[in-house]
Recover the amino acids of this structure.
């Protein structure tokens, strides 16, 4: 976790903690850098909108991914994806978040819009086809 804390400092992540991101899970060393574009984007959104955001899902090992019905090649498996929602649970806050993503997304991103959360990843950074958008 020292590497992740160092990267948080270097990238000036202000609105999230390593603990919020990892949920106490041990992240394989080789995956740690994968999350930085996604958490940096999410941190900037949280600061711009001033809407408290919770991270519902970040890293998943294969067993957890299978248990919750995640897709076989999920970017959560390589610590590149986040599922996020407003702490308030309010639809208007979620809609503001969706609008922020729509306006500020990059060509490297994958974005899934769901009823109660948003999936964000930077798949292009890992050589996957991007940009991609879907509704769940």
């Amino acid at each position: 976790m020292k590497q992740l804390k160092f990267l948080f400092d270097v990238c000036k992540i202000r609105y999230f903690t390593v603990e919020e991101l990892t949920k106490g899970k041990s992240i394989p060393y080789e995956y740690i850098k994968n999350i930085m574009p996604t958490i940096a984007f999410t941190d900037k959104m949280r600061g711009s909108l001033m809407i408290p955001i919770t991270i519902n899902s970040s890293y998943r090992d294969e067993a957890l991914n299978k248990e919750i019905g995640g897709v076989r090649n999920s970017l959560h498996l390589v610590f590149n994806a986040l599922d996020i929602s407003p702490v308030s649970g309010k639809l208007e806050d979620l809609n503001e978040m969706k609008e922020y993503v729509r306006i500020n997304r990059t060509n490297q991103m994958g974005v899934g819009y769901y009823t109660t959360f948003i999936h964000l990843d930077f798949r292009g950074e890992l050589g996957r086809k991007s940009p991609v958008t879907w509704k769940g």
